């Protein structure tokens, strides 16, 4: 049996593929190695894996995750996977490679992620040929859930949010200034916390304030990241992630404003990623 995983910063979507190629989906927490160590991943997996799953029956694990870039980050995740799935061959790669394989298969092109964080690349059909660093939620991640959530929180705390939306925000979350700052600076996974507020912009997308905030986030995504790729307009814009999918109309307008046609926008890469790996077996 094979396990294929798309690991974001907030959650990981897993697909179990049986010998007859039947698929079963389940979810666990996200395992970004910038925020969790090997022991933490092992503990979470043992707690959240389905009770019907026999880890020793898994023969192969393909895990693609957020921030799995450096050899140390790869080792953090790979060691955890090997400790839980003791009989499996384990592959650990970057979630950007998963996005490219899901969006483009074996065709060269442009792929992006717009979820809790953001990332992008030119893909050569096998691997990532060119990547402009998004710099993470502290310095960049323009267009991401964290970027949108940060703007909402800043406007809420500074009193720059329209009065009716401020009332709705307070009613929805019930958070005071000190609670927000404590979650940001003293509690684990601040990126998840910030990104969770992007849903407010989606839930109130009819408000011009939210429309403008999202449009500005996507405009900065193209201005500060996408336009740094040579000949970026020669590619179609393909994207995976909840933020890109939920705000796909605004994203399409932003792409058009910067001279890119939109190709494929999907919420999750897991179905297409599983198909990619099953095709590998058929062609092997």
Full CATH superfamily name of the domain at 2-99 and 270-283: ATPase, nucleotide binding domain
Radius of gyration: 19 Å
CATH topology of the domain at 2-99 and 270-283: Nucleotidyltransferase, domain 5
Strand order of the largest sheet: 3-2-1-4-5
Uncertain runs are none
Helical fraction: 40-55%
CATH class of the domain at 2-99 and 270-283: Alpha Beta
Number of strands: 10
Series of secondary-structure elements, N-terminal to C-terminal: EEEHEHEHEEEHHHHHHHEHHEH
Give the N-terminus to C-terminus distance in angstroms: 17 Å
Could you describe the largest sheet, including whether it forms a barrel? 5 strands, mixed
Counting DSSP H or I runs of 4 or more residues, the number of helices is 13
Protein name: ATPase
Organism: Hymenobacter ginsengisoli
InterPro entries: ATPase_NBD, Euk-type_GlcNAc_Kinase
What does this structure look like?
- This protein is α/β, with parallel strands linked by helices.
- The protein has a domain of 112 residues: ATPase, nucleotide binding domain (Nucleotidyltransferase, domain 5), CATH 3.30.420.40.
- Helices cover 46% and strands 20% of the residues.
- The protein contains 13 helices and ten strands.
- A hairpin with a 5-residue loop joins β2 and β3.
- The two termini are 17 Å apart.
Write the layout of secondary structure elements.
Elements (H helix, E strand, L loop, with lengths): L1 E6 L3 E7 L5 E7 L8 H11 L11 E6 L5 H14 L4 E6 H10 L4 E6 L3 E6 L4 E3 L5 H4 L5 H14 L4 H11 L3 H9 L4 H6 L2 H6 L4 H17 L12 E4 L1 H5 L1 H10 L4 E5 L3 H14 L1
């Amino acid at each position: 049996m094979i396990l294929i995983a798309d690991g974001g910063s907030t959650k990981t979507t897993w697909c179990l593929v049986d010998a007859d190629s039947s698929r079963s989906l389940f979810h666990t927490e996200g395992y970004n190695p910038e925020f969790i160590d090997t022991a933490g991943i092992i503990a979470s997996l043992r707690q959240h894996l389905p009770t019907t799953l026999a880890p020793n029956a898994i023969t192969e694990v393909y895990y693609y995750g957020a921030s799995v870039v450096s050899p140390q980050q790869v080792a953090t995740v790979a060691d955890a996977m090997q400790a839980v799935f003791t009989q499996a061959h384990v592959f650990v790669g970057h979630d950007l490679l998963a996005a490219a394989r899901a969006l483009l298969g074996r065709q060269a092109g442009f792929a992006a992620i717009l979820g809790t964080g953001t990332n992008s690349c030119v893909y050569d059909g096998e691997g990532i040929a060119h990547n402009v660093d998004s710099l993470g939620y502290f310095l960049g991640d323009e267009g991401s859930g964290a970027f949108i959530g940060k703007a909402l929180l800043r406007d809420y705390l500074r009193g720059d949010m329209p009065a009716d939306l401020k009332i709705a925000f307070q009613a929805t979350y019930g958070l005071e200034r000190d609670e927000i700052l404590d979650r940001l600076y003293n509690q684990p996974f601040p990126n998840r916390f910030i990104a969770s507020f992007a849903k407010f912009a989606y839930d109130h997308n009819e408000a011009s304030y939210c429309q403008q905030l999202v449009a500005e986030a996507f405009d900065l995504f193209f201005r500060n990241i996408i336009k740094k790729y040579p000949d970026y307009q020669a590619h179609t814009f393909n994207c995976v992630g909840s933020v890109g999918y939920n705000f796909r109309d605004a994203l399409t307008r932003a792409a058009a404003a910067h001279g890119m046609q939109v190709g494929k926008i999907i919420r999750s890469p897991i179905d297409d990623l599983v198909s990619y790996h099953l095709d590998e077996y058929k062609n092997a």
